[in-house]
From TrEMBL:
<feature type="domain" description="Zorya protein ZorC EH">
    <location>
        <begin position="194"/>
        <end position="437"/>
    </location>
</feature>
<dbReference type="Pfam" id="PF15611">
    <property type="entry name" value="EH_Signature"/>
</dbReference>
<protein>
    <recommendedName>
        <fullName>Zorya protein ZorC EH domain-containing protein</fullName>
    </recommendedName>
</protein>
<dbReference type="InterPro" id="IPR028943">
    <property type="entry name" value="ZorC_EH_Signature_dom"/>
</dbReference>
Length: 478
């Protein structure tokens, strides 16, 4: 039996190539030997020290524009090569000199398509680098005599030629209308830039902490184009910058935005996300990290260790609530029993331990004691429940990227070398340890909290007797 089958692989390949060429012709794309000849000529010209390039005929000028429009792959991007070799300006100087008046109308649409289609390459060129290109572009559009809608629209809206894309948004309001009124194809880079600016303007219009279907719709589009650069940030980073600027102004951010940011940017408390956060802005990185950390400390003090046989918890809570605003970063490390308590009494917080193990960690073996690490900028603290010591450090004592810890890590090795002082939660009812630590922080780190601030509301009536008791034990009551 013959192995020859019909249609053969070669036949199908030939047919596909022919079909592709027909599609290209239908889309106005140039193909063929003359096209390839001009492409090679431009590549040689880019690497040549010679500033002059001669065209055999006017059709070769048209083919030159086609090459600059069509060759967009990294391997064969002729336009980018000419820009990198600083030959684009001289190329269009040569084109302008050799272009005949009766051919200027013919290449006008090619010039505009090149500008629209490869806009990102022209956007960052200096006035000197793009002088001859823009000169020919403006002349071609303004002197066009014909019925091409895209050229007539450009002629009518001169701001689009100068790159003032905000004017298009201001004039036509809606993205769909902009495309229709300017006859722009979605594949044009200039349309993509308008779309990006449009999305950014939408984000700027949102109310602080607004979250609704309109916001979700715009965010969906932003995520589709998230990697497009907007100055020093990509579109997603720029959007988060806009949102955080609004939220910081009122010192509040809702969970919807937190979830979006965590999912698409990353938790600012996790070290590996620091680079992207620094691009967004260090000011907002430190603000959000501190806010999240302060909320965690409050949750740890008020909800996560409320009871469970720990008699110190109410005094510890009252004490550290006075210092929360000074905390820059925190990390909770829960015991097994603590997690079980959360699972039953605070399921939302329990989910965080399952979803963000680098921010919310666990003890390997410890069954009852839970701890929290707190960064105050100039000193560091590890506080704990169930007879854990309160420790102050001059340097970060533990590896903050870990997910699981042993309690001994807090007082041995590097932690021991960084230790400044430790305290026992002694005589809480008399406020002995609380005032001792208050004075230590005040004397060493200049953070002032009044004595009555660390005293429980139900103990205020005996404030004077507490002061007398502390004074008798040589503690400051100022």
């Amino acid at each position: 039996m013959s192995n020859n089958q019909y249609p053969s692989h070669n036949f199908l390949t030939t047919l596909e190539n022919a079909s592709q060429k027909l599609r290209q012709i239908g889309q106005g794309k140039e193909i063929g030997k003359d096209y390839e000849r001009i492409k090679n000529k431009l590549i040689i010209y880019a690497d040549s020290p010679n500033e002059e390039i001669m065209f055999d005929n006017q059709a070769d000028i048209r083919r030159t524009l086609s090459v600059l429009i069509q060759e967009v792959s990294n391997k064969n991007d002729v336009l980018k090569l000419l820009i990198e070799k600083s030959k684009l300006n001289s190329l269009f100087n040569n084109i302008s000199k050799q272009l005949k008046d009766d051919y200027k109308n013919i290449i006008a649409k090619k010039m505009l398509s090149l500008y629209y289609g490869r806009y990102l390459n022209f956007r960052h060129l200096s006035e000197k680098e793009r002088f001859y290109f823009y000169q020919l572009l403006i002349h071609s559009v303004n002197n066009f005599n014909g019925k091409s809608m895209i050229l007539l629209k450009a002629k009518e809206n001169q701001y689009i030629l100068s790159g003032d894309l905000h004017e298009a948004i201001k004039k036509y309001k809606e993205l769909k209308t902009i495309g229709q009124e300017l006859s722009l194809l979605e594949s044009f880079e200039i349309y993509q830039c308008i779309k990006i600016l449009f999305l950014i303007e939408k984000a700027k219009e949102w109310r602080v902490n607004q979250w609704d279907k309109d916001v979700e719709c715009v965010l969906e589009q932003i995520l589709q184009h998230k990697n497009i650069m907007v100055e020093q940030r990509n579109l997603l980073e720029e959007t988060v910058f806009i949102i955080l600027k609004k939220c910081k102004s009122v010192d509040k951010i809702i969970d919807n935005w937190l979830n979006f940011i965590f999912k698409n940017i990353g938790d600012p408390r996790i070290l590996r996300h620091q680079n992207v956060w620094f691009r967004i802005g260090e000011e907002y990185y430190y603000w959000l990290r501190a806010k999240l950390s302060q909320d965690d400390v409050r949750a740890f003090l008020e909800n996560m260790t409320d009871g469970q046989g720990d008699e110190v918890y109410q005094y510890r809570r009252q004490f550290w609530l006075q210092y929360i605003k000074h905390i820059q970063y925190s990390k909770i490390i829960m015991s097994g029993s603590g997690l079980e308590y959360l699972k039953d009494n605070n399921p939302e917080m329990y989910k965080k331990f399952q979803s963000y193990p680098e921010s919310y960690s666990k003890f390997h073996k410890q069954t009852q004691r839970s701890c929290i690490f707190m960064d105050f900028g100039s000193f560091y603290v590890i506080e704990g429940t169930h007879n854990a010591k309160l420790r102050f450090y001059k340097d970060i004592p533990i590896n903050l990227s870990k997910r699981n810890y042993d309690y001994k890590e807090f007082y041995s090795g590097e932690a021991d070398n960084a230790l400044l002082e430790d305290f026992t939660h002694y005589n809480s009812e008399s406020y002995y340890w609380q005032n001792q630590v208050r004075c230590f922080i005040m004397d060493n780190f200049n953070i002032h909290v009044k004595l009555d601030g660390i005293i429980l509301k139900e103990d205020k009536y005996r404030l004077q007797s507490i002061k007398d008791h502390l004074f008798e034990r040589n503690q400051s009551i100022l």
